[in-house]
Prior knowledge:
disordered C terminus; mainly alpha; two-stranded antiparallel ribbon
Amino acid sequence: MKLNSVAPKEGYTWIRQGIWLFKQNPLGFLMLVFMYVFAAQLAVIVPVVGVFAVLILTPTLAVGFMTACRQAIQKERISPMVYLIALKSGALIRRRILQLGLVYAALILLLSFILSLLVDFELLLPLLTSDKPITPEAIRQIYLVLFFGAFLYIPVAMLMWFSPVLIAWADMSVAKALFSSCLACWANKAAFFLYLSIWSVILIAIPLTVGMIFDALNLGQVGSFVIAPISMAGLTVMYCSFYATWKACFTEDEVIPSV
């Protein structure tokens, strides 16, 4: 497995490649993303245990989606069972991928604890759950959550970006996969900065702007019906582009046949 260093402009290329990959099997990819979102929403209903289970299984699901990307390129049918492929790859891979899930869950819990020290959730939650108009203080707290949450999640994202695939496809240990993933993200930080900046505009800035326009026209409910499917499609394309980041940052070892 060879680590590559790419030019900053590749961040834009990854998005274009994600769009191309999505076009190979849009219904299959949308099905997988819908299943994940639906399962995550169900998990929230089960206090603590449900959310913890989703966090532990996140690396497993990541390997499944990346495998689906491979299948789409090879014109193979995408099945929901692809999500379980890492758990069916042998005892060693299964143990490592679940250990990685425990690491991810622990990191998220640590991040949540640190965020609770920086943001007044006791003030924020009642303001968001009440029927009263959101106050300027609540808006300030929301922006603090978004800012500090995104900032704290950066190192977690670097550790987890490639590590599930490195375990499943490159047979790395958990520690080595985490280190290699972080190293790959750091070596290509300029490309990732451009890549994530564009996705931030597509998935956050544009929907917020469109929503504000619909609200100004007193068409808030119509805006929800318009924005939701577009956001789901955009999220799916972003997941497809993860495969493009993998192919750009790593070159898989070629198997040389014996003569």
